[in-house]
Design goal:
There is one protein chain. The protein is an alpha/beta fold. It has one domain: Ribonuclease E inhibitor RraA/RraA-like (Glucose Oxidase, domain 1). About 30% of the residues lie in helices and about 25% in strands. β10 and β11 form a beta hairpin. It starts with 10 loop residues before the first helix and ends in a 10-residue tail after the last helix. One of its GO terms (molecular function) is metal ion binding.
């Protein structure tokens, strides 16, 4: 019997794999550009996931941007006795994915730490987004790994929380938004925050963005010369779907 197992790809091999064409197409644009397009398509709040900001590799600084399909992980309180997956989620995440972790509202415990980032980075994961707390902040920064979260903490999750679902539909844990994140949805995150693009709208978003971004750039150039916003917008927004008013 052959007990040899296929070796996992090395990080250098993962980085050389061909990039998802959707990620490549979205790369030139910011979360704000994507939100503008989603608003035009009728998505509430332009897909913005509130109160989640960048903590690593720096705290709200630099040009870090992550884009990729969501791999969702749901934590629940142990007192509810949820059914738990047979294996650890961190060992099953495809390269190129973004981990999206959901924790119960007002949870004190962190749900993501430095060991998870070490495994994620070796697996070719793009970054991690947490609807909750992270811990081991310096470890994520030392690995130059993007992590977005609501806050930081010190306490590990096993005291009161456990993973109950992997790669299922999640709801943002907030009373201010009725927003869902699906495993097939695309996430984009940068200094402005996190936006979720429903998979079925990705192509429509990509069709809208170029013309609205070009119009906004033309308006900005005119504004810097002293032209009024109303004049510039009237000229460059004509026939353009999308665009921002701020």
């Amino acid at each position: 019997m052959n007990h040899n197992r296929a070796a996992s790809p090395l990080p250098s091999e993962l980085s050389s794999m061909s990039e998802d064409p959707i990620v490549s197409a979205l790369r030139p644009y910011s979360t704000c550009d994507v939100s503008d397009a989603l608003l035009k398509l009728g998505v509430t709040h332009g897909g913005f996931l509130s109160n989640i900001t960048m903590w690593s590799p720096k705290r709200q600084e630099g040009n870090t941007k992550i884009i990729g399909p969501a791999y969702t992980v749901k934590y629940e309180r142990k007192v509810l006795k949820p059914k738990q997956p047979p294996t650890h989620y961190i060992d099953s995440i495809p390269p190129g994915s973004i981990i999206f972790i959901s924790a119960p509202s007002e949870t004190i415990n962190a749900v993501y730490g430095g060991l998870m980032t070490a495994r994620a980075k070796a697996s070719g994961v793009i970054g991690t987004i947490i609807d909750g707390r992270l811990r081991d902040l310096q470890e994520h920064r030392d690995l130059d790994f993007p992590v977005f979260a609501k806050d930081v903490g010190t306490t590990a999750p096993q005291e009161s929380l456990c993973v109950c679902e992997i790669n299922t539909r999640l709801r943002l844990r907030t009373e201010h938004q009725n927003t869902s994140i699906n495993p097939s949805d695309y996430l984009i995150a940068d200094l402005n925050g996190v936006v979720c693009i429903p998979r079925e709208l990705v192509e429509k978003v990509l069709a809208l963005i170029p013309s609205q971004v070009e119009a906004d750039e033309r308006i900005k150039r005119d504004l810097l010369t002293g032209r009024t916003f109303v004049e510039a917008a009237r000229e460059w927004r004509a026939g353009v779907k999308g665009g921002k008013d701020v």
